[in-house]
Amino acid sequence: MKSFHFLVLLAFALALSFASAFDPSPLQDFCVAIPEPKNAVFVNGKFCKNPNLTVADDFFAWGLNIPGDTDQNRVRSNVTLLNVDRIPGLNTLGISLARLDFAANGGLNPPHIHPRGTEILVVVEGTLYVGFVTSNPNRLIAKVLYPGDVFVFPIGLIHFQFNIAKTNAVAFAGLSSQNPGVITIADAIFGPDPPINPDVLAKAFQLDKNDVEKLQKLFED
């Protein structure tokens, strides 16, 4: 248990080390997020609570010790993200944290990108095959990770994590944004609303149009 807590703290500390790389630097001690006031203009972040009204719960979240449910989706994984929407005190601080749970024998966090954040991941349980793809020329950088191993996924690059073991896997990730965002490649291509014209996808992926339409129906669910 002590080693588990150490690895979680390590992941968060590493996230802190590069947290200010992309999100704006704060101009005050903190800026606890509040809902946008009526008729507000857009700001790059969230509106701030009066600092004299902040409380400890503005900087607090619980539950990362609870395993995520990996039985409710086709990829058999679960990501529990603590971003500015869960911890209002993260507003302007440029960090977030996630717990990743993977079912045994093939739990997958499918290829995706974070448009606003670099990710640093530490495995605390199980065995994960992880990797990312570089921009042109597209080259795969991949490695098998074991408990205590750490891997970095640079901002904006397609990456994945895959459980190759017969036991469940758990990892924690720090991200260099209060709201890193996520674009899952397959969902974005075959499941947007409204859908992309299947002729476009058929030509792009060199597939039969009927196959594209079948995939689009699959990702409607």
Automatic annotation (TrEMBL):
Main subcellular location: secreted
Keyword Cell wall biogenesis/degradation: no
Domain Cupin type-1, residue spans: 77-213
UniProt GO molecular function: manganese ion binding
Xref: Gene3D superfamilies: Jelly Rolls
Highest taxon, organism lineage: Eukaryota
Cysteine disulfide partners in this protein: 31-48
SMART domains: Cupin_1
Signal peptide start-end: 1-21
Keyword presence, Metal-binding: yes
InterPro entries for the chain: Cupin_1, Germin, Germin_Mn-BS, RmlC-like_jellyroll, RmlC_Cupin_sf
Transmembrane segments: none
Binding sites annotated in the UniProt record for oxalate: 109, 114, 119
Sequence positions that bind Mn(2+): 112, 114, 119, 159
Location within or outside the cell: Secreted, Extracellular space, Apoplast
Gene Ontology cellular-component terms listed: apoplast
Keywords: Apoplast, Disulfide bond, Glycoprotein, Manganese, Metal-binding, Secreted, Signal
Classification via PANTHER family: GERMIN-LIKE PROTEIN SUBFAMILY 3 MEMBER 3 (PTHR31238)
Similarity field: Belongs to the germin family.
Biological role stated in the UniProt entry: May play a role in plant defense. Probably has no oxalate oxidase activity even if the active site is conserved.
Protein name: Germin-like protein
